[in-house]
Amino acid sequence: MEDLSIRLSDLPDEILIFILRKLYNVEVLYSLTGVNKRLNTLAYDSIFTTHLTLYFLDKFIYPLPDPMLDRFRLQILPKIHHKVKWLNLESTSIERILLATNYPNLNGLGLYDIDVEKALYLFNSKLF
Description:
The protein has helices at 13-20, 25-32, 37-43, 46-49, 66-80, 94-98, 116-124, and strands at residues 51-53, 55-57, 61-63, 86-90, 108-112. It is of the alpha/beta class. Strands 1-4-5 form a three-stranded parallel β-sheet. A two-stranded antiparallel ribbon has the order 2-3. Helix 2 (25-32) packs antiparallel against helix 3 (37-43). It comes from Rotaria sordida.
């Protein structure tokens, strides 16, 4: 009998992108960044980097776990910051994400689960 197994690396980029588009962008970036050059190239494609939602949504909004957030802040965002056009953030990570790097092409910012006092503090202070 012939061995019909196919590895992920055997698939063309178009098929991989089709599969990866079924995932959240945050999962693609977190899971594929640093694996190898080919997967970095796919993960850093504008399909996955222009519109980022950096929280989990079920019936409620859940922040990214600290290790995941730290990896985005320290490793991933500095590499893709110029591609990010929209960020969706929740209240506990807003400061850390916005201060992680400069976002020269950011056109939109969605802030979720934020109270008025924190919003006033963030946007009236000299943080940004």
